[in-house]
Amino acid sequence: MLTPPVDxxxxxxxxxxxxxxxxxxxxxxxxxxxxxxxSMGAIDIPLIxxxxxxxxxxxxxxxxxxxxxxxxxxxxxxxxxRSANQAWTAHLDGFRARGAFVxxxxxxxxxxxxxxxxxxxxxxxxxxxLSHAVGSRKPDPEIFELAAKRAxxxxxxxxxxxxxxxxxxxxxxxxxxxxxFHDADQAARQVSRLLAAAVPLAx
Length: 203
Description:
Number of strands: 4
Protein name: HAD-IA family hydrolase
InterPro entries: HAD-like_sf, HAD-SF_hydro_IA, HAD_sf
Shape: globular
CATH superfamily of the largest domain: HAD superfamily/HAD-like
Radius of gyration: 17 Å
Pfam families: Hydrolase (PF00702)
GO molecular function, one term: hydrolase activity
Keywords: Hydrolase
C-alpha cells in the first residue's frame, strides 16, 4: 500500500526489461516452486540472494520460454520511478495521532531495504517487522504472531491492511482482523471504523 499497486509495477517492469509479463510471472513462479515457496519467497526470507535469484529467472526465461533477458540488479530496476503512496502515508500518520500503534509488516528482500527506506522512512512507524530479518513472511502464521508480540498486543487486537488477498486470509487465520486494501481512502474508512470502536490497532 505504500507503493503503487504491484500489478502496475509488474507491467512497467516487464516493459522496461523487454520480457512478456506472463513469461516473467511464470518464471518467478517456477523458481519459487523450486525452493518450496511462491514467486518471491526465495528472496523474501531469504533462501538465496537477489543476484542468484535473478540469474535463475534468466535461466528459466531462456530455457523454458526462449526469452533472453538481463534481470540483474532486479530491485534497482523494480523500484525505478516508483513513488510512495502519499495519501496512505498521510492516513497512517493520522491514525498514530489518534493513538493507534502503526507498524510496518512487509515481505522484503534484504537488498531492497534501502529502496524501502528511501520511499518512506522509519519515523512513520511504531514498529517494523520485515520478512528478511525474521525468516518468515506473510501469509505464514509465524510472522503475524511475532508482529503482535512486538506490538504488545493480542492477535485479535491487530489488523493487517494489505492489497494481497492471500495475506489478508493469512492474517485472519492467525487471529487478526484485516482490511483488504483497494485504495487509500477506502482502507482508511475501514480502519477508522475500527478505531471508532476503540479497537487497538497494529497495521
